[in-house]
Amino acid sequence: MCGIVGYVGKRPAVEILLAGLKRLEYRGYDSAGVAFFREEKIEIHKSEGKLENVEKLLNGRAPAYQDVCCGIGHTRWATHGKPTTQNAHPHRTGHVVLVHNGIIENYQEIKREIISKGYRPESETDSELFGFLVLEQMDRGASLMEAVRQSFARLQGACSVVIMSEREPNVVIGVRNGSPLVAAADPAGGTILASDAQPLLQFTRDVVFLEHGDIVLGTEKGLRFFELETGKPVARASSRLDWSVEKLDKQGFPHYMLKEIYEQPTALMDTLNGFLDRARTDSFPLAASQPGVALLEKAREITLVACGSSWHAASLGKYWLEKWARVPVTVELASEYRYRDPVLGANALLIGISQSGETADTLAVIREARKQGIPTIGITNVRGSTLSREADATFFTFAGPEIGVAATKTFLAQMLGLLIFSGFLSLKRDGWHAGSLVSLDSVSRLFEDMIRIPHLLSDFLGNGSSATGLAGVIRKIAAELASAKGFFFIGRGYSFPVALEGALKLKEIAYVHAEGYAAGELKHGPIAMIDREMVVVVLAPRDQWRDKTVSNLQEVKARGAIILGIGNASDEELIGLCDHWIELPSVKVDESLVPFFLTPVIQLLSYELALLHGTDVDKPRNLAKSVTVE
Predict the structure, then answer these.
(1) What is the pLDDT of residues 433-470, one digit of tens each?
(2) Helices in 299-436 by DSSP H: which ranges?
(3) 625 a catalytic residue
(4) Which residue is catalytic, options 22, 318, 323, 625?
(5) What is the pLDDT of residue 610?
């Protein structure tokens, strides 16, 4: 959520802070600021709104900042207090200046205490309060490091802080106790800190993901790590990232989201190569080097836990795992599951899914499961993320960096990972599927179809330049539907989770009212909303649910809804019922794989409608890429 950058070294710090914060804009924010040392004093420049407002405050004065070599920066996503300049970070309390990510749960208790001692907070935030605790400790004679350590012991809640003091120039200290924090040594000499790895990649690919309860001390000489609880030095190994700065650029696309939609075939191919042992010729050969293989094989029931788009991927995974592997599967929203008292069997496996690997609710479930001795697997796109370190085993998707806030290629890569699990477990079931309609031959065919998907999807997407291609068709339809009052996405079977995702995408980036429903549920209440100003997007490929879906379509058509159908070119009956039509590719693959073609359609539809509504596609309001608070 909030973005943090800190630097101390030999390079121009202000340039590094601003460039780093720009790399973190995808996380979502509503105010920004920087603070830096000049002649042993700390200057703060901050503003509500976009980072450009901070740049304007510094405009024309860049040469004066070339000698600045130490500072911190922040983009804030409001939790405590309105998104105003006063509440923007960095915060100053005397000679102490800090930035903060996360929530201090006992802030009211701390606020009462510091006010009783005569201090007067200037903002509405919980973040500023930590500075008063540090200030008090330093006034008693503690060093900045010791003051931070002692003060942090007072806090409740998951958060990270990066802090400086005018009493200790050119020192930056970072603390991680929940919200992620990444550190790296600058090859030119110095230290870089950030809440995500992106700002570090222009300098190095070797980064350290801080553990819970770590303090990092950054100076021109480099990094040193300490235990928050004891203050003792600790060693932390670095991770080498396979991302590059070039992958973070738009590469000619007008938006990151569009670029990432068109990167989906590559993301699928790379994820296939990452999950599978391609030297083997058998179906679904999960790489033996994956530590989670044994956990999958032992599982007799599986619980999938996730939030947002990852939850929709999990919902689709349930269909596949139950059909192909005949494993009982429960799909849970992490934000609800963590506060329940669930009952899991002796051979249960819990799988947490998070594109960033930092989703607070999903991580809380993983931690509780491990306390109870339940084996856990993580699926994430980020190596070194908290999920990858805290789950018993991790499977990494290989979608590359995803900058657009609305998940696209990571969603498809998660889907693929769950499909691979399904096929793998299908071939590992004892005694195989007695009485099942699934055969060994059908599993082999599924695998053969699956490895064709990246190429088929690439052909389906095209390059977006043709008016008669997929993008052109969707662009024209979006223009005709832009004034609609709202949208219903409906589907059955494999199409149902895609319908949920379609509605979420439209809400996220176009700010249009949209709902996703199992098609058979419309008559149980939602159909009351249908009128001539409502668009119903019907996902009706030729699968086992197609006839029932068309029957539900008839129900909304009779009530005057505008119908946008998505289906097969040969389905003349369906085409005749629709006001608008988007054709799926004419390829023969197992119906389990059709969601890989439906998903880009609903993504592009949302994208085009967002453009027509004039919204910020990559950075939608009120949203954050990595949801690190509850």
Answers:
(1) 555 567 888 899 999 999 999 999 999 998 776 677 89
(2) 308-320, 334-337, 360-371, 386-390, 409-426
(3) yes
(4) 625
(5) 96
